[in-house]
Amino acid sequence: MSIRQDRNIVETLVGRAASDGDGVKLIRVFGGQGPERFDPFLMLDEFGSDQAADYIGGFPSHPHRGFETVTYMLEGRMLHEDHLGNRGLLEPGGVQWMTAGRGIIHSEMPQQDSGLMRGFQLWINLPAAEKMQPAGYQDLPPADFPAHRLTNGATLKVIAGDVQLDGQTYSGPIQGKSTEPLYLDLHLPAGGELAIPVAEHLNALIYVYEGEVELGSGSQPGKLRSKHLGRLGEGDTVSVRAGESDARLLLIAGRPLREPIVQYGPFVMNRREEIEQAVLDYRAGRLAS
């Protein structure tokens, strides 16, 4: 019988205020410097405001090449449109999974002028062999992400991958990606505990968006407060315990690519020359052709 090894926090990051698109205010959880530590993930943003001025400008038409974007809505409505003719309305609980591949030009615009707009966008790198594949888009409705009630009172939503809990396997609709993404949304009641198996070969991150949690094992487990991200070390289990109030968190894991990462804005490739080509292609109208 194998002995469980809990993953401990090796780095804590605090989300910082930022803006993107046409002045949309958001929290940049990570992204930019030292992306290799999060491999295969490149960036995580949380957006959330009940002030229309913070989000009404949206994200007008812009390009991407070389990676995937995952937009997960908690509240509000956002319309995706792209050069391929795809059109999808993101609603509370829904997900947009977009593979930029060799190039896509799209927009994401609010479909409301009041009320709360809240959600997350995650960027996942593509391996060199897949960066120039044709672009693709999946519009996944809220019904694809049921909330599973676990025996300890926790609630689980699986966006990507599979996880075994309570003697059952829970699967998300996103499967078969070469980065093997596992993307979970977890709600823990006050004092609730959960031990989540995560394959040893995957890099793992925890982002707390409400409440406070403890992670790991030993006499001094690591703590994460709201708007804090923990990068986790080696192991095969993520053990998490909520504090004195309910906690809501994302668990994100994926297979590291261990390839060079060169990024220039919305383009992520392996070499500088490929970035220069992406810029030339975009300026010449060839990026998404």
Write the layout of secondary structure elements.
Blueprint (H helix, E strand, L loop, with lengths): L8 E6 L1 E5 L3 E8 L9 E9 L9 E6 L2 E9 L2 E5 L4 E4 L4 E5 L4 E7 L6 E9 L10 E5 L7 E2 L5 E6 L1 E4 L2 E4 L10 E7 L4 E5 L5 E8 L1 E4 L6 E4 L2 E5 L4 E6 L4 E8 L7 E3 L2 E3 L2 H12 L6
Antiparallel strand pairs: 1-22, 2-3, 3-4, 4-11, 5-10, 6-9, 6-11, 7-8, 7-10, 9-12, 13-14, 14-17, 15-16, 17-24, 18-23, 19-22, 19-24, 20-21, 20-23, 25-26
Short structural summary:
This protein is mainly beta.
Structure write-up:
- The chain has 289 residues and is mostly beta strands.
- It has 1 helix and 26 strands.
- The strands form 6 sheets. A 7-stranded antiparallel beta sheet has the order 1-22-19-24-17-14-13, with no helix packed on it.
- It is globular and about 60 Å long.
- It starts with 8 loop residues before the first strand and ends in a 6-residue tail after the last helix.
H/E series = EEEEEEEEEEEEEEEEEEEEEEEEEEH
Distance between the termini: 54 Å
Strand ordering within the main sheet: 1-22-19-24-17-14-13
- The total beta strand count reads 26
Largest sheet, if any?
7 strands, antiparallel
Residues in helix, %: under 10%
**Structural class of the secondary structure composition?**
mainly beta
The unreliable regions are none
Sheet-strand content, in percent, reads over 45%
Rg, alpha carbons: 19 Å
Give me the number of helical elements: 1
Q: If you average the pLDDT, what whole number results?
A: 95
What key attributes describe this structure?
single chain, 289 residues, mainly beta, 7-stranded antiparallel sheet, 4% helix
